[in-house]
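INFO batch 0412 | record 1 of 1 | parsing
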Amino acid sequence: MNDRLQNIIGRDDSARSGKSGTQDDVVYAHIFDAILEQRLAPGTKLSEEALGEIFGVSRTIIRRALSRLAHEQVVLLRPNRGAVVAEPSLEEARQISFARRIVERAITELAVDNATPEQIANMQRLVDEEQACLEKGDRGTGIRLSGEFHLQLALMANNAPLLNFQRSLVSQTSLIIARYESGNRSHCSYDEHNQLIKAIQQRDKEKAVELMMHHLDHIDHKLNLQDDGASGDLHAVFSHLIKDRKEPKARKKRTG
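INFO prediction complete | emitting tokens
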């Protein structure tokens, strides 16, 4: 693994452990995890004052962490109104889903070429931990670990720009799921992740890509990314009543 990749992944791991990393690394990692675990809902206001009190750091530190998250497009910085967790629109959600397919395909192909036995073993432990969390009802941690699976896969690919892009896409996907997931909230990535690990271990690039596309299909099928028909226009919402009221008047005029 090259030094740049090690810095990208290592800094976040150390920040989560609380053992090292700068103060803004720690704040960034905790907020990033909260978004992955869907504990921070889209649209949540991120008060610098409140976060400073929670983490025991200055507002300057908070601003640096929020700026990093804004760069990854999971936080929106609003001039004079503060920061909020991003709320992807329907069109943004569709674009993110499309972009992720392209990135995941490239990552999967590179992972098949570059994965080491040690990385594969680490991935298997991650998937087993994910399943254990889900079995005991810890859905939030399970979702985060599922996201980390895809980050570790990007690490396997040994391509720093793809890893950085993947961090943004994975966290944005978590926001999309929180906002647009419909129906059954079952979490079925365990078997799919296991199958993908096996294909990578066997160096079967075609199978690995096929499994990844199927996995992303599964994620997309649980989302309602069609126009929901909701509207803030009262005339549009109640147009059928207006039409019904006007029709009798029109008939009365014709018969009169």
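INFO post-check: Strands lie at 45-46, 75-78, 82-85.
INFO record closed
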